[in-house]
Design brief:
Number of strands: 3
Strand order of the largest sheet: 1-2-3
Strand content: 25-35%
Radius of gyration: 13 Å
Helix content: 10-25%
Oligomer: single chain
Structural class: alpha/beta
């Protein structure tokens, strides 16, 4: 059985964007696409972005990648 792949992948790079990342994720999710995956790449944030991504945002996106500081 084949797994259905998303039609659209959105990759969001993040570096110290704790104040805006929730807004960006919400806007992408509300674009109207049904077959979408959201991937966030945190590039070693030091402002709490990583903690936010590991917490509430982890349930709203498909994949989160963390780069070392």
């Amino acid at each position: 059985m084949q797994t259905k792949r998303p039609v659209l992948s959105v990759i969001i790079p993040v570096y110290n964007e704790a104040d805006t990342i929730q807004i960006v994720v919400d806007r992408v999710r509300n674009m109207g696409w049904t077959d979408i995956e959201i991937i966030i790449v945190d590039d070693g944030s030091t402002d709490g972005s990583a903690e936010l991504l590991k917490g509430t945002l982890s349930k709203l996106v498909d994949k989160i990648l963390f780069q070392p500081r």
